[in-house]
Amino acid sequence: MSIGLSVHIGLNQVDPEAYDGWSGELGACEQDAVDMAGLADAAGFDVTGPLLSPAATAETVTATLEAAAGRLAEGDILFLTYSGHGGQVPDLNHDETGDRLDETWVLYDRQLVDDELFELFGKFARGVRIWLLSDSCHSGTVARRLPEMLSPQELDRRFSTADPQEVGRRIRAMPQSVQAAVYRRDRDVYDRIQNTRTAKDLAKVDASVLEISGCQDNQTSADGIVNGLFTGTLLEVWRGGAFAGSYRGLHREIVKRMPPDQTPNLFQAGAPNSAFARQRPFTI
Fold first, then answer.
1. What PANTHER family does the entry give (predicted)?
2. pTM for this one?
3. Which of 5, 16, 10 is nearest to 40 (CA)?
4. Dihedral angle over CA of 265, 232, 29, 121, nearest 10
């Protein structure tokens, strides 16, 4: 019998000491993680967490995924969700062909670079399925391009304000000024992470990865009162298990309900597995 493990990460804030005084306050990310953990538990997954704000450190997330890789074998599945800010650091190992920037998850004590995440995926055995939901900005491929900077006019249209602090409470993106300050201060840490990983190494993922993201690479993900817009829409489509379609069908139905400036992406990586996207979500 196949095994299903799930890990759920949600951050409504980060440690200001780690982010140049920025606390990254959001409203609904922890609830996203709690709701996804409940859904996974109802589907029979062995749930870790949820890992909420102070518990969602880089060390804890890394150790949790390494432990999952040690337990899962061919035919098993990992369900991994992240809800929080997205960020970027300069790409040093040339695995980004576009903007030369690596995407990050903004964890409590530091950013987890996409290179690290894919290296962790590389620890999973061939035949393992990894289903990833990332409700964060610039998450179209969990990691592959910096969005265009929104103009004051666009910010005003989208959020009725051009105040960066107010916008920061409504979208899940680390402000560029904070990204720059954190990278200048902690450059040795982030450069070392990338310098020990090559593009060739990152391609060695034997598991099959399927991601449904909160938005495209050049878009932002909206926060909310109860859930983030993407997570809330997913729950609406899922309807407590009444949805009977595939992963691809789930993605299509979510996209239909989302605004045109936030379009969830479906992305596959690792070992080819065409049947994966046709399976029913939350099925072990």
1. METACASPASE-1 (PTHR48104:SF30), METACASPASE-4 (PTHR48104)
2. 0.86
3. 5
4. -40
